């Protein structure tokens, strides 16, 4: 029988249980809902973390009945859920599945939605608590939130809460991010707006906080006295694929650096928060982003590229300009790298190098904290640079874990040293499987707990860092080409060579 934490009053997961509520998914027929959101909901249900009356309402243009929607959900769970399909779990979930046919612009669908949510409150005990997941283009946020307001579905009432969840991109620059925020906060309170960055739900990202603040051995050396530089990488082997319509005109910097990588930088560089509560963590992240020095000279502090056609993994692959749906004159970058500095006492003079790209050597996301060389007077291998610097590498994906690189004596009669690694992997150290990022994030929304969700101040600070680089690139020519399977354009190597450093090979 599946273990149920609800039956064990000593189980610490009781504090993590979601209260009564309903989740409305706009854009429920899209890939995100089908491959990520619905499977995450099922996995939460399978873990006993959802209220027995929890309900899901899909909203879209399809002429589906509730029964058809339930079958679509079943197929999604079978194909993409982490947990094995359990008929009893699914039947409990099925009882709260509803579908509302409607457009985003016409009020009739929202009137029907109000009726359905009212019915769920009475038959399922959802308590009129509603979370709205806007899995739709940002341009449609204003009209959907306006219709929710008109239908009386946006304002907290009678002790019931209303929350809205939005996916990146949060605008295309600081100005549009502010405009988007105004549209959301005109209807919902700031603390009721949850901006999803799914990277922040990954176990290893959360482990950054535990690694730093639950251990006494790292924090004393987590500063400019000992750290030479930090490299934050998110690399993909694939091209744009089916995302061409979204990606062209957005590019690598807007798609990844503005949100994922700058959030990783903030978590890496932040001071210890007073608590792990949302407000305390957010304050420390905002301090870091506010302390990032303005990029005064983008040509020497940034690099951009665009992948060419060629061979990768033994197969011929198209260049970016030859991908389906891409304008042949597109100047959108598929590779972006930045050199940043955090002007705080802890990090003064320590460069942070951020890079992301498609069609690179392998799929990997990691944070590498590279330490300064030891004096090396006893070991000529160190003095001559034959032994690399110590490094602590937090692997976010695909092999979640932590690696420490350090020098060790080579067995034998002579005193010689070389690099060795000590590795911790989640899959080896824990019997529990890691939940998917969306499981953690959806549960946090339902509980109203938001330490991993960026607020508007963080979003605007991130755009403030990136906007000067984007403006410079707009005035320049096309991005530099690079071959598939490599690690980006030559200008990215020059970015580090100017500082007498090189990129890690993950």
In a nutshell, what does this entry contain?
By secondary structure, the protein is of the alpha/beta class. The chain contains 16 helices and 17 strands. The chain has 2 domains: 5-167, 3-Layer(aba) Sandwich (Rossmann fold); 200-373 and 455-497, Dihydrodipicolinate Reductase, domain 2.
Q: What would your notes on this structure say?
A:
This protein has helices at about 30-45, 65-80, 85-95, 105-125, 140-150, 175-185, 205-215, 245, 250-270, 280-290, 300, 380-385, 425-430, 435-445, 455-475, 490-495, and strands spanning about 20-25, 55-60, 95-100, 130-135, 160-165, 195, 225-235, 300-305, 310, 315, 335-340, 350-355, 365-370, 390-395, 400-410, 415-425, 480. With about 500 residues, it is α/β, with parallel strands linked by helices. The chain has two domains: about 5-165, 3-Layer(aba) Sandwich (Rossmann fold); about 200-375 and about 455-495, Dihydrodipicolinate Reductase, domain 2 (2-Layer Sandwich). The strands form three sheets. A nine-stranded mixed beta sheet has the order 16-15-14-13-7-12-11-8-17, with helices on both faces. Helix 10 (about 280-290) packs parallel to helix 15 (about 455-475). The longest helix is centred in the last third of the chain and has 20 residues, at about 455-475. The chain is globular, with a radius of gyration of 24 Å. The protein starts with about 20 loop residues before the first strand and ends in a 9-residue tail after the last helix. The model is unreliable at about 1-15 (pLDDT under 50). Keywords: Carbohydrate metabolism, Glucose metabolism, NADP, Oxidoreductase. GO terms for molecular function: glucose-6-phosphate dehydrogenase activity; NADP binding. It comes from Pontimonas salivibrio. One of its GO terms (biological process) is pentose-phosphate shunt, oxidative branch.
């Amino acid at each position: 029988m599946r273990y149920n934490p609800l039956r064990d009053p000593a189980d610490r997961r009781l504090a993590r249980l979601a209260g009564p509520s309903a989740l409305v998914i706009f854009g429920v027929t899209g890939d995100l809902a089908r491959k990520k959101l619905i499977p995450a909901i099922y996995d939460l249900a399978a873990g006993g973390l959802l209220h027995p009356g929890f309900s899901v309402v899909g909203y879209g243009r399809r002429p589906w009945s509730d029964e058809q929607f339930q079958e679509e959900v079943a197929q999604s769970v079978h194909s993409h859920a982490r947990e094995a399909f359990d008929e009893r779990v699914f039947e409990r979930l099925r009882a709260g599945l509803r579908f509302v046919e409607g457009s985003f612009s016409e009020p009739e669908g929202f009137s029907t939605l109000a009726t359905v949510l009212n019915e769920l409150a009475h038959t399922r005990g959802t308590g009129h608590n509603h979370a709205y997941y806007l899995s739709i283009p940002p341009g449609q946020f204003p009209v959907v939130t306006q219709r929710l307001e008109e239908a009386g579905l946006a304002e907290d009432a009678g002790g019931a809460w209303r929350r809205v969840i939005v996916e990146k991109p949060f605008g295309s620059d600081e100005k549009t991010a502010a405009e988007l925020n105004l549209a959301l906060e005109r209807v919902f309170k700031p603390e009721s707006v949850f901006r999803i960055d799914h990277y922040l739900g990954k176990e290893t990202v959360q482990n950054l906080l535990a690694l730093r603040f639950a251990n006494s051995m790292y924090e004393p050396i987590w500063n400019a006295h000992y750290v030479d530089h930090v490299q934050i990488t998110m690399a993909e082997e694939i091209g744009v694929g089916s995302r061409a319509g979204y990606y062209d005109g957005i590019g690598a910097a807007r798609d990844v650096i503005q949100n994922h990588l700058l959030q990783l930088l903030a978590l890496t560089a932040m001071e210890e928060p007073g608590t792990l509560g949302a407000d305390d963590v957010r304050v420390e992240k905002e301090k870091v982003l506010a302390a990032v020095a303005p990029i005064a000279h983008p040509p020497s502090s940034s690099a951009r590229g665009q992948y060419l056609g060629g061979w990768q993994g033994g197969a011929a692959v198209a260049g970016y300009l030859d991908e389906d749906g891409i304008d042949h004159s597109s100047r959108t970058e598929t590779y972006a790298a930045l050199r940043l500095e955090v002007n705080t006492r802890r990090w003064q003079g320590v460069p942070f190098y951020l890079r992301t790209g498609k069609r690179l050597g392998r799929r990997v996301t990691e944070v590498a904290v590279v330490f300064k060389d030891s004096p090396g007077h006893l070991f000529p291998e160190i003095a001559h640079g034959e032994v690399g610097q110590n490094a602590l590498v937090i692997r976010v994906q695909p092999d979640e874990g932590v690696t420490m690189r350090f020098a060790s004596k080579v067995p034998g009669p002579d005193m010689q040293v070389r690099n060795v690694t000590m590795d911790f992997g989640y899959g080896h150290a824990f019997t529990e499987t890691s939940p998917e990022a969306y499981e953690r994030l959806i549960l946090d929304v339902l509980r109203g707990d938001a330490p991993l969700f960026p607020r508007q101040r963080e979003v605007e600070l991130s755009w403030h860092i990136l906007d000067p680089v984007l403006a410079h690139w707009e005035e320049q020519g096309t991005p530099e080409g690079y071959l598939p399977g490599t690690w980006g354009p030559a200008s990215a190597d020059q970015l580090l060579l100017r500082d007498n450093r090189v990129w890690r090979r993950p």
